Amino acid sequence: MSPFQYIISYGNLLENPSQNVDYLFKRFTNPLFFFRINSVKKQLTRKKQLLTYFRPFDYVFIGLAIMLSFVPAIWTVYQTMNQPQTSGLVAIVKINGEVVDTYPLEKGGPHKEKTYYPNKGQYNIVEVDGDSIRVKEDNSPDQIAVKTGWINKEGQLSICLPHNLIIEIQRTKGSSPASEDSEDNLILPL
Q: Is 151 in contact with 67 (CB distance < 8 Å)?
């Protein structure tokens, strides 16, 4: 509040003008009052100083950077929506890095359940239902593989780390799209 606002707001309450002067003297001689005004002024000047560092095209570049940060997410969603769900997919079950089983995933395929015992006292029940696969039940403490639920798209994983069990969905070699030969076109940065 400015000094004039104090005079107007408290001048009406106090009938004796000498009391107004005493109040204002006490208020404006209080060092915390001036400290508070100075801190507000410093905050405003910091903001003004910060804004002087930006040029008009800086806002354009910041806006472009924010928009470009969403491109990978949009591309991923676009690719997963246009990907065929089940043509030529297999589920590969690995325990301790070794392939134990492969299940073809096709619509209307058979329903199977199989129990794996990766180590003594550990078990995983894997359920295959046509074009989807999941870990139905296990005795791991965190139940992450069970909570993952059904997986049915290329590249999806269901992992049970305490039991070293990994279920990965891959496209069979004969059914890969002609435009994508993932191993031949793989470019690694050096």
A: no
